Amino acid sequence: RSFARSVLRFLGFIFWGTAVAHMYGGVSVILMFKNYRYLFQEAYLSLPGWLALVTALTLLPTGVLAVSISVKSSRNQQGTFMCLLLLLLCLEMSSVALARSYCVRTASQLESAISYLVHQHNWTCSQDPGSGAVDVIQRKLHCCGVHNYTDWLKASSLHHPTCVPESCCKEKHSLCRGDLGHVEQLSEEGCLKKLEDQLRFSMLYIFWSCIVLSILELLATVSNGILMRRQPFCELCIL
Which residues lie closer than 8 Å to 191 by C-beta, 6 or more apart? Predict the structure, then answer.
């Protein structure tokens, strides 16, 4: 019983720490889909991020109850603690399922979405830095084209075949104008790979943080159950 109390006290502090981790993961997912809304049209894709925020807020009182129960057991607190653990389990399993399915689904849509933006983009070999959606993405991710800068050559017309948009230029080359005669001044990587890596990292972060938290909650449930066995029900009003 004393070991169960120690475990609950330790898990209470862990729950507060994981609340911060879940909040970071949720905010990063929401901001990612907001920043790249040109590519992700469906608003519900940010749902795993919102679920992570709700999970983080629920973890705060759960941690408080875990510490409180470890100091002085209360039947009301123990029952509320079990209810919160059940709620957290539902939120986490939903987040795991959504993160896994969205990661596969959105990855297959990224290439066609970026390719469409590239082919719809109008640019000229001028001083105009460009402010289209694809320019914003290329500057933010330091990338060029779908796979590399040659994608712009395939999308270009006969009027501007010797340059790419200035948003492909590396930041350290302030005089770069997208001239294909100076390929070393252009970003080497394509935007597709960088977007896929960012999407995969955010979704896997949500996925594994929920899995780890579920294991910790199982341990907290067992510890709380051990303490509840020592105090049998005297009445049914708690139900």
Answer: 114, 134, 137, 138, 141, 143, 144, 145, 146
Q: Is 122 helix (H, G, I), strand (E, B) or coil?
A: coil
Q: Exposed e or buried b for every residue in 98-129, given b needs 16+ CB within 10 A?
A: bbeebbeebeeebbebbbebbeebebebeeee
Classify burial at 180, counting beta carbons within 10 Å of its beta carbon; exposed 0-12, middle 13-18, buried 19 or more: middle
Instruction: Identify the pLDDT of residue 133.
Output: 78
Q: Which residues, in sequence order, are CB contacts of 35 under 8 Å at separation 6+? A: 140
Chain centre to alpha carbon of residue 129: 30
Give the model's pLDDT for residue 3. 86
Enumerate residue ranges in the chain where pLDDT < 50: 158, 236, 239
Number of C-beta neighbours around residue 26 at 10 A? 26
Residue 72 structure tokens:
């002085």
